[in-house]
Automatic annotation (TrEMBL):
Residues 13-117 form the NYN domain. This is Uncharacterized protein LOC104714205. Signal peptide: none annotated. It comes from the Eukaryota. Residues 150-169 are annotated as: Disordered. The gene is LOC104714205. Pfam families: NYN (PF01936).
Amino acid sequence: MKMASPEEALAETFVFWDMKQFPVPSGFDALQVLPCITRFLEKYGYSGPLTITAVGDPSRIPGHIFHALSLTGIRLYHVPTKILRRDTMSLMSHCMSENSPPANIMGICGPRSFPPPLSGYNIFRPFSYSSPHQDFILWKSLILATSQPTSRETPKGLTPLLTGKGDGN
């Protein structure tokens, strides 16, 4: 992943996380996901406001993980499993329509979940695509390797739990 440009560094960052493809690893404290993503972004120079949206089917997320994530301010967006990729792309596209550039959009999702790039938006993944299995290994490495404290007590733009419902269309 490349370092943020000066403009990107201060722009708001929106993270869209596919919880089916990239679940919280077994035994990992779900309360640490937000600080780990924050530290990862800081490592690459991103310091603007941060909003993380976890996209998934709550019926397939263990209750203790769902509860822990809701306590951190990560937005939880309910999407039936069979339309997850399409809805992740829809959420990213909607984000771009609602937030003018400059803005950063990081997808913790498969490469086919990305909308077409638009001018002024920095759209990226935290690791280059290899295969679904390799991506999951890289995801686990990313969150397990970021164990030092973050420079920000609470990310700017942290929002309380919001649960959206995908319409399945």
